[in-house]
Amino acid sequence: MHERYVELHAHSCFSLLDGAVTPEVLLDQAQALGLQALALTDHDGLYGAVRFYLAARQRGILPIIGAELTIAADSSFPMSSHLVLLAEDRRGYRNLCWLISRGQLAGQKGHPQLSLAQFAGRTAGLIALTACPRGRVTAHLRARATDQALATLQALKELFGPQSVYVELQQHLHPDDAALAAALADLARRLPLDELRRSEHRENIAQRLPVHRPDESHTTPSRQNNLNPTQRPVHRRQIEYLARRSIRCDSHRHED
Fold this sequence. Notes:
Elements (H helix, E strand, L loop, with lengths): L22 H10 L4 E4 L8 H10 L3 E10 L9 E7 L2 H17 L19 E4 L6 H7 L3 H15 L4 E4 L8 H14 L3 E5 L22 H6 L11 H4 L3 E2 L10
Parallel strand pairs: 1-2, 4-5, 5-6
Antiparallel strand pairs: 2-3, 3-4, 6-7
C-alpha cells in the first residue's frame, strides 16, 4: 500500500444498512493494508467515534473523526443530500458536534434537518468532501447539469474556504464510475480545487481486499418480503470499499 494513502470516507456498523462491520474490524483491515491513518464518517452522528479513536491509537493508526451529514432539501436542490465533513483539529470537532446536534434536534428521529445556511460560522477546522452519488455536486453531474454542479462547488468553496474543500473521486467498480470521476476532476480543475484521487491512480488494491458481502441479518424477514426490488436496501461490500479514496496523510493533523 502506498505510504501516503488514507481512506477518508468509511462507514461502520453504526451507519445502519450502509456499513456492516465494527470500527475495530475497519481498523484491522487498515492495519493489514499498511495504512497510517483512517477516517470514520458514519451517517449523521459520532456513535462509534470514541471506540474508533481508542482502537486506532492501540493499533498505531492516526484516527480522523468525521461524519457524512444529511443536508435538507432547499430551493436549489429538491431532495436531501450528503456532505462528508472531517475534523482537522479540536475546533473542527466542536463545530462538527454542533452541526450534528443542530440537525438531529431540528428533525425527527432518523431524519435530521440541517440546512447549508446553518453552516455559517461553523466551518472552521472542518474539511468538506463532495461525498457519494447523493452529494449535490455528483448528483448534478449525473443529471448532466454541469452549471449547477459548478455553482454548488463554488458555494462550498465560499463556505469552507478554498483549502478545505475536496472533490471526491470514487471507484467502486460501478459502470459509470470512470466517467463520473473524470467529470468531477474537470470541475476541480475549473475552480480549481484538489481532488481525492481514485485508488487505481496510486496502486491497484482491489485484488488485495477480501470481498465482504453483508448478509440480510440487519433487515427483518417481513421487511425484506414487503419491499419491491427498487426499495430494498443496497448492501455494500464494506471491506472491499475500504481505501478507495486517497489524500496525503500530512494534510490532516490531529491534536492529542
